[in-house]
Automatic annotation (TrEMBL):
Source species, domain of life: Eukaryota
UniProt keyword annotation of Transferase present: yes
Role played: Catalyzes the transfer of a geranyl-geranyl moiety from geranyl-geranyl pyrophosphate to cysteines occuring in specific C-terminal amino acid sequences.
Keyword Translocase recorded: no
Protein name in UniProt: Geranylgeranyl transferase type-2 subunit alpha
Catalyzed chemical reaction(s): geranylgeranyl diphosphate + L-cysteinyl-[protein] = S-geranylgeranyl-L-cysteinyl-[protein] + diphosphate
InterPro entries: Prenyl_trans_a (IPR002088)
Organism the protein comes from: Pichia kudriavzevii
Record-level GO cellular component terms: Rab-protein geranylgeranyltransferase complex
PROSITE patterns: PFTA (PS51147)
Enzyme Commission (EC) number: 2.5.1.60
Biological-process GO terms, alphabetical: prenylation
Pfam families: PPTA
């Protein structure tokens, strides 16, 4: 119950990724705090009963709207109460408004978004609060998307890997593309987001959400790329190079440039799984089917050599091979065999799996499945 400080809710807006969503107390500490807050607990339980009864009886008036607000101030993890609040907004706050009273509804939603933001500052990883904010924006025909993008920037400054914020940002981007009030083209919006993922990855290569977002954007940009003539002359030269790849549908050159970025990342932290997952995607069927076969074979072989070299460095430094290096090289040999049907590649694949079984015996059964 969130009114007991430290009992359940994490009150830190800047709580970093990897931290516990809730602070854990010993049974004795929790009991002591509960005893000190006994009167508040009784009030909380009574308020819960009243609100839930109002929901059951479908009462939609000012009294119950205020009670719901008070209850959510105490505990904002009650999804049933959030759902009740939605109905109260539609049936109480919107009462008497017509369908085209957009400004009046926008004002109500603006106040609601302020209420929601206060809760998000205290619990930035709550599904129910983010869902409620999305619900508001879906119904508000005058939503200010720039404010929402700015909001995600603030939250990502506090925790760059908060996947709730990344998911919310994707919703905002999709909404912008569907909104006739937004002058920027969908392609230009996607390219701006691609640049944003680059910025976030440069800050923290372990940002799985940024890598994931990047993979989705790459496909969109190769399908629909913004025209070069609409790009500012002061565009970052590195980003302009990416744009030319997208604009010319040159997936081979894109892969070569992207692999340079990836190599820096894996040498920085060879045990970071998020980078390896993205690297694996770069050698997926999406690219294999669109690039000249010999070019792809050469690219895979070059990457195999680079990862093998990294594995040798790891062996020298740590007296043990790196599991992620071996897994990825095995994957590449399997891809090579699927393209060239060379039995040597298959033998290399089998050999690496045997080394993995010795290096990582707890997952021996999983590696045996790879053989199959």
């Amino acid at each position: 119950m969130s009114f007991v400080p430290g009992y359940s809710q994490n009150n830190s807006f800047a709580g970093m990724h990897g931290s516990e969503k809730y602070n854990k107390l010993s049974a004795e500490e929790a009991s002591r705090k509960m005893h000190l807050e006994e009167s508040k607990i009784k009030k909380y339980k009574k308020l819960c009963d009243i609100v839930l009864e109002g929901n059951r009886r479908r009462i939609y008036n000012e009294k119950y709207y205020n009670l719901v607000t008070e209850l959510l101030d105490w505990n904002f993890e009650l999804y049933t109460v959030w759902n009740y609040r939605k109905v109260l907004i539609l049936k109480f706050l919107f009462k008497g408004l017509k369908e085209n009273d957009l400004k009046e509804k926008h004002q109500i939603f603006t106040e609601e978004l302020h209420f929601v933001l206060d809760k998000l500052r205290k619990s930035p990883k709550s599904y129910w609060i983010w869902n409620h904010r999305i619900w508001c924006l879906k119904l508000d025909k005058l939503s200010d998307w720039n404010i929402e993008i700015g909001l995600t920037n603030k939250f990502l400054q506090a925790d760059q890997r908060n996947f709730h914020v990344w998911a919310y940002r994707r919703f905002i981007i999709d909404s912008m593309k569907k909104d006739d009030r937004v002058e920027q083209s969908s392609e230009a919006i996607d390219f701006d987001e691609f640049k944003f993922t680059t910025k976030m990855i440069n800050k923290d290569i372990s940002n799985y959400s940024a890598w994931h977002n990047r993979s989705k954007l790459v496909i969109k940009l190769f399908t629909n790329s913004p025209s070069l003539e609409h790009i500012s002359t002061d565009e970052d030269p590195k980003m302009l190079e990416y744009l030319r790849f997208f604009n010319g549908s040159n997936q081979f050159l894109f892969l070569k440039k992207e692999l340079d970025l990836i190599k820096t990342a894996i040498y920085t932290d060879p045990d970071d799984s998020s980078v390896w997952f993205y690297m694996k995607w770069l050698f997926s069927d999406y690219f294999l089917t669109n690039i000249d076969m010999q070019d792809m074979i050469n690219l895979i072989k070059d990457t195999v050599n680079a990862v093998k070299e990294l594995n040798e460095f790891e062996l020298d430094d740590n007296e043990a091979e790196n599991k992620w290096c071996l897994i990825f090289v095995a994957y590449l040999y399997k891809r090579l065999h699927s393209i060239s049907k060379n039995e040597v590649d298959l033998e290399e694949f089998e050999s690496i799996l045997q080394r993995l079984e010795k290096l990582d015996p707890m997952r021996r059964s999983r590696y045996k499945e790879f053989h199959m």
